Amino acid sequence: MKLLSNSRIWAIAVIMFSGLVYVAGCTRDNDMLVPIKLTQPFAPNRGNAILLPGNMTAGNATEWKLDKAHSSVLWSGAYIGAAGLLTGRFNQFGMHNVVDAEMINYVTTGQPLKDSSWSFYESDPSKTHINGYVQINTSNTGEPGRDGGCNISSLGTTVIVTGTQNLTVTNLAKIRSTKVELDPASNGYIVTLELTWKGLLAQPLTKTLIGKLNYVPKSTPTGATYDVFGLQLTFQFNKADFGITSTNIGDKISIECNMNFNNK
Amino acid sequence: MLESFFSYIEWIELETFFSGYLLVYAIIHLVASKPPLTSFAKTRLLPKLPLAYALAGTLYLGLQLKDAYPDYTIGHMAASVQLPFLKIWALLSILFWIPLFNKKPVFSLLHSSVFFFLLLKSLYLNLFTSAADNDMVRNSMKIYSVSIILNLVALLLVTLISLLPAFSKKTST
């Protein structure tokens, strides 16, 4: 108490402190707001796998074969263009570059053409290429009445003939990659591809599209003596471009190709 | 840290009325110890400091009554109080009107130091911690400046009023 009453030190301290705080308050700038980096730049993690079909010789572990039984080509689009998805799959498809001369009917229950029109280079996508096709009339929505009925006329094709693989121009939609690049945001690839389909047009139309390709790395299934790997390609197209005017489904159709390969 | 906007408002009111007193006290104390103003400061200003402080407290009470208008029920007034202990402490400053308490100016100094240190704490938090905000510092300094002016004016008023009887006596003779 006496100290407070007599000493001048505290008084000088109070005055000096007040002055200092005024100076600090008047000259100090707010801290710079440094944005917090929430996500690190993507660091790709790709190997050097080179996967080729070769001659698809059975028993040759260096030649990869399409495992059609465990692969699929799925499609989806908004029901009536506004509701939930209407989905389906193509029962018959392959990975062959179907040239004009090959666009015929094949009397077989197996693959009509060799699924060898592809190559995959994990770290050098400029060498990667993909070809594929579907038979339009094998679209399967799980409703036989629709699949073998209105779908056939809506898509401008003909009904399935048992034991025949129909690769004629009216029943064939095919894709061909023209460029494959590394995706900077993932371990996948950006694919420029051409979709060729006649649809309801007078002549087949080729549209250039962009798709995304993912590689499911090679591995050995538990207890197996062979290896497997997968390629997943997704892309979208506008059905109206091909003259399909059905209002049962929206114009934007998404395609997902899940191709599994083995070296049995 | 203050938890709500309303407590911050109450804190501003308290700091406005009481935080500047310490500096005013310090200045008068220094002046009183240095000639040539020593005798005037010692005899006229220093003893009036607690009264000036009591005047600030009375003005604060007036503001609280104005805020509570027109419902002066205890329930209403208690419900609107965010910082009850600080408010009660602030209102205790009115006791310095009583000669028993204003006899020793250092009591008023101790009383007001609570508000000064709260201001210091706020300034420290806003200047040096991760929650640093210069706008808050400037606001606190404005409040502090207003408080210094208010306490200086209060001291001036109390001193003038105390001088009035002597002045009127002089003029009448």
User: Total number of β-strand segments of chain A?
Assistant: 15
Q: Radius of gyration of chain A over alpha carbons?
A: 31 Å
CATH 2nd-level architecture of chain A: Beta Barrel
Helix-strand makeup class of chain A: mainly beta
* Basic shape of chain A: elongated
Question: CATH superfamily membership of chain A, which one?
Answer: Lipid/polyisoprenoid-binding, YceI-like
Features:
heterodimer, A: 264 residues, mainly beta, Lipocalin, 13-stranded antiparallel sheet, two-stranded antiparallel sheet, 3 helices, B: 173 residues, mainly alpha, 9 helices, 78% helix, 0% strand, globular
What would you note in describing this structure?
- The complex is a heterodimer of chains A (264) and B (173).
- With 264 residues, chain A is mainly beta.
- Helix content of chain A is 13%, strand content 36%.
- Chain A has one domain (50-262): Lipid/polyisoprenoid-binding, YceI-like (Lipocalin), CATH 2.40.128.
- Chain A is built from 3 helices and 15 strands.
- In chain A, the strands form 2 sheets. In chain A, strands 1, 2, 3, 4, 5, 7, 8, 9, 11, 12, 13, 14 and 15 form a 13-stranded antiparallel sheet that branches.
- Chain B has 9 helices and no strands.
- Chain B has helices spanning 5-18, 21-32, 38-45, 49-68, 74-79, 84-91, 99-102, 105-128, 134-172.
- In chain B, helix 1 packs antiparallel against helix 4, helix 2 crosses helix 3 (38-45) and helix 8 (105-128) packs antiparallel against helix 9 (134-172).
- Chains A and B meet through helix 2 of A and helix 2, helix 8 and helix 9 of B.
